[in-house]
């Protein structure tokens, strides 16, 4: 066995680097494909739910993650019923239209939404048999008011039916300058979650 020349070693190193780059490119392509599938799935849900509420949106984490080229962990669908309509009635009507897709909803008994009754959120339901974990969040006030009450500016982004994405001024400014605005009364656990999720962002308490 002969020793390899420096040129041969460098060539092997270069070939290995090219292979790594190709693998990384393929992973990026797969990530983009999955993000697009998640968006399409969200649009299907929103379009079906238009008959329940024409102002239904997916807000918060999912559109924020998509806007940052990341796959969403779950979908938070914000929906409001008719005036004086009970949360049960809204969920029942949503279940009826989603059942045509093979999905169903069930009320969460215990969840992270421990501020139910506050911030305009009346009830939370899980969507069953879906390709991406999803929650149906029933609002007691308009979705725009609920989003405005979000604790962190990084969540103030939402997607309406047919894929239209809306960004609040706080979200847009925060992304540009790598800063997020957090309410002073926000719970410690949520603050830590945001700090871990955006380690390179500056935190501003408002």
Describe this structure in words.
The chain is an alpha+beta fold and 206 residues long. 42% of the residues lie in helices and 21% in strands. It has six helices and nine strands. The strands form two sheets. Strands 3-4-5-2-1-6-7 form a seven-stranded mixed beta sheet. The longest helix is centred in the first third of the chain and has 44 residues, at 6-49. The model has no long low-confidence stretch (mean pLDDT 88).
The N- to C-terminal Cα distance equals 69 Å
Number of strands: 9
Counted by DSSP, the helix tally is 6
Low-confidence stretches: none
Rounded Rg: 22 Å
| Average pLDDT number | 88
Order of helices and strands: HEHEHEEEHEEHEHE
What is the topology?
Layout: H1 6-49, E1 57-59, H2 61-67, E2 75-80, H3 87-98, E3 104-107, E4 121-128, E5 134-139, H4 143-148, E6 157-160, E7 164-167, H5 169-176, E8 179-182, H6 188-197, E9 202-205
Parallel strand pairs: 2-5, 8-9
Antiparallel strand pairs: 1-2, 1-6, 3-4, 4-5, 6-7
Summarize the entry for a quick read.
With 206 residues, the protein is an alpha+beta fold.
For this entry, give a set of tags.
seven-stranded mixed β-sheet; 206 residues; globular; alpha+beta; two-stranded parallel sheet; 6 helices
